[in-house]
Structure formats: structure tokens, C-alpha cells
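ok so I'm stuck.
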Amino acid sequence: MERSAQPPMWNPVPIPAQTPTQEGLLDVQGARLWYWDTGGGGHPVILLHAGTQSAAGWVYQQPVLAHAGFRVIAYSRRGYYRSDVKDATDPGIGSEDLHALIEHLKLDSVDLIGAAQGAFYAVDYVLEYPQKVRSLAIVSSYLGITDADYAEVNNRLRPQFFASLPHDFQELSPSYRAGNPEGLAAWNATTHQAVPGARVTPRRKQALTWARLETIKHPTLLMTGDSDLYTPPSLLRMQAQHMPHAQVHIVAEAGHSPYWEQPEVFNTILLAFLAEQKR
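replied:
not stuck anymore, here's the structure
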């Protein structure tokens, strides 16, 4: 007895052709940062990568944002893919490295999109240089807020053994891992190239507290995946309570990397948010 054809478990989204870019290396104190820039006269959008990724991990966003008329820029933090660091014990300050890039490119105002650990430095930058930022998107980031109530929640979410689990288990949803083996392999390839040596974690200017977060009045987008083990929807709602002006979006069937797992949904939400800033 023949069975009828079944629909695919997952509809993979192929990685699109990339928009041509100019690449450069920027000397900062104790390191060189690799960056790429699509150029053009559109408003600049800077993409800040997750702790397991690099500037090479935005393949689903680069051409889409460029086609929408934005000048798209990304860089690898110290010690990440194609960026170097002279002394890993002196990781620098993430927001100051970002500021050095913005000054180098002579940008007056930028939209910042920070994923996971990248959002740590995006938020730190907004707090330090609010006049340089038009809008802020925080993607699947627990932000490292130090208040006791938030720390207790995070301790319950991620027990000690969590750090020893494979990155793809930590960061990609079960639905994606089960249904898209090609995408899983491509994601793992980008993570393997992202950190060629010991991981370097730049410092922040100040610890982030709820009180400091509440001072951010810029247009803000908060987004996470419904299967994110780092920033589940309940944790995102805690953040949103302290940023009541922010838009909040939960991406279905996505984990910690919604920009990779569900790029069409992610890009639609992001582009709608950015379009509002043009008005």
C-alpha cells in the first residue's frame, strides 16, 4: 500500500547571495577588528554578533537589509573570526571598540542590532553614547542584568552542566535541529570558524541594572525565540517590564538564533521596526 507524500518537516531557507562589501581592519588599542560594509547612502545599521558567531554569521540579513536601502555593517569582536587580539588578558571595552568603528566610518547616527552577547555591548553603547544611536534591537539576549531577582531566574534556567553542552543544543531549537540538517551543519560551520583560539570577552563600562536599563528611551525592539534556552519568553517579558516602550516579538519554532533559524520571520519583524524609524 502506497503512502501519500508527506509535507517536509521543515522548509529550509537557502542562504541568499550576498551583497558586495568593502572590508577593512581597524586598529584599536591592543587589537585589530575585521569589518565589512555594504556602503551606499542608506542609514547605517550595525550588526553585533552573538558569542558563538562572528561578523560572518549575518548571511540571512546582509542582502535583505541592503536591498531595503540600508548601509549594512558588521564587525568581529576581538579574537573572533579575522579579528585579532595581542593580549587576551586585556580584552578591551566592547562599547569603545564599537565607538572606534563608528568614528572611523564617520557615522553620525546608527541603528544597532545586537544578538545575544552582542546586545551586551549594544546596550552599553546606547548608555554611553545615546546621541549616536537612532534605534536599538535586542535579539535573544539575557543582557547580564545584575539585580538579584533576575540573577535568581537565570540560575534556575541554566544549571552548571548547561555550559558543557554542545553549542547547537544550547542555541538552536529542537524543531530546527530535527528538521533542517543542512542548516544545522552550516550554523555549526560558522560557529567553528568564529572563535579560532581562546574566547575573548570584552568588558563593559558598567554593570547593567534594571535602573540603568530603564533610562534607555530609544525606540527598542525586543525579540527572542519561543524555544530559547537562554532567553525564553518569560525572561523577555521581565526585560520588557523595564522597557515599556519597547516592541516585543516571540518567534515561533526558534531558539537562541532566530535570525538564522527563522530568517524570513525575523527579517520581516526587523524591517518593519526599522521602517518606523524613517518616519
